[in-house]
Amino acid sequence: MEITRRSMLTGKTHTREVNVTHQEIAAWHAGALIQDAMPFLSDDDREFFMSGITPEEWDDFFGEGAQMDRGRQQPIEHLTYYNPR
């Protein structure tokens, strides 16, 4: 499924193909942990889904090889987006 998100780091909008179903999204929005609702997502896809941050942005901002925050589990509508303006 194509997922479009605005990056919390840059404010840019990105679209990625993410292997997720409507049922998995609904389970996450209903309160399931994202890693339980969408167990087959990679760390990169899970981070993109939650925050809109691409792997390239993550590496540019935090340095190559930095670990993504696997502890955050808030649904998208509860996240605050960074606006660089």
Describe the structure.
By secondary structure, this protein is of the alpha+beta class. The protein has one domain (2-78). Helices cover 34% and strands 12% of the residues. The chain has 4 helices and 2 strands, in the order ββαααα. The chain has helices spanning 22-29, 34-37, 43-51, 55-62; strands spanning 2-6, 13-17. Strands 1-2 form a two-stranded antiparallel sheet. Strand 1 and strand 2 form a beta hairpin. The radius of gyration is 12 Å and the shape is globular. The N and C termini lie far apart (31 Å). Residues 70-85 have low confidence and may be disordered.
Order of neighbouring strands in the sheet with most strands: 1-2
Total of helices: 4
Query: Total number of β-strand segments?
Result: 2
Query: What count of domains describes the coordinates?
Result: 1
Reported for the largest beta sheet, the result is: 2 strands, antiparallel
Task: Determine the fraction of residues in helical runs and give it as a percent range.
Answer: 25-40%
Structural category: alpha+beta
SSE sequence, one letter per element: EEHHHH
Q: Runs with pLDDT <50, length 5+?
A: 70-85
What's the mean pLDDT score? Answer: 80
N- to C-terminal distance = 31 Å
Question: What is the global morphology?
Answer: globular
Beta-strand level of the residues, as a percent range? 5-15%
- Compute the gyration radius: what is it? 12 Å
